[in-house]
Design goal:
It is a single chain. 9% of the residues lie in helices and 34% in strands. By secondary structure, the protein is mainly beta.
């Protein structure tokens, strides 16, 4: 068979080393991949090889004191994408309570971005859907990579106590 390109092309193997690709027959309808796409693929491959999937994301444990009515829900809403970008219906963090821990509500959050200062508020969702936002300035919580913190607060009361969980060595306190 006649070859369109008798010079073998180089391609990266799964371990990152270069290998010769077989020549492409002249009657083949294989489209040439643009260099920009090859560059992106090689960057993605390099990134995939360098990323460890055992990454410890920061863990933030929320403990909020709130006396409420049956059927109420408590959300953490803020500027982070996982906190809904200030849209309560989009947050991924809904705190829960039960007979054993009431009036304390708890939940766990792993922010996408760290180190970063995360702004948030608590939002009480009444049984009929009415939203009651805390009437405070935004709360602020600085999160570092691999943090394991407990953030303690009372709904609609200033102040935020941040405590490092037992695996870490120091404790910190932050105001609203």
């Amino acid at each position: 068979a006649e070859m369109a390109n008798s010079t073998p092309r180089k391609r990266a193997s799964s371990d990152g080393r270069s290998q010769a690709s077989p020549p492409v027959p002249a009657n083949s309808h294989v489209a040439e991949v643009p260099d920009i796409v090859k560059g992106i693929w090689s960057m993605e491959s390099a990134l995939a090889r360098s990323v460890s999937y055992d990454i410890d994301l920061p863990q933030i444990h929320f403990q909020v004191e709130l006396s409420s009515a049956p059927g109420d829900r408590l959300l953490v809403v803020g500027g982070d994408m996982t906190l809904g970008d200030w849209v309560p219906e989009k947050t991924t963090l809904e705190l829960t309570t039960d007979d054993g821990k009431y009036p304390f509500w708890t939940g766990k959050w792993s922010p996408n971005e760290s180190p970063a200062d995360h702004q948030f508020k608590l939002v009480l969702v009444r049984k009929g859907g009415y939203l009651f936002w805390e009437e405070l300035v935004n709360r602020s919580l600085f999160v570092s990579p691999m943090d394991d913190l407990t953030a303690q607060m009372k709904f609609n009361s200033p102040g935020l106590l941040v405590v490092n969980n037992p695996d870490t060595s120091t404790a910190a306190s932050s105001g609203c």
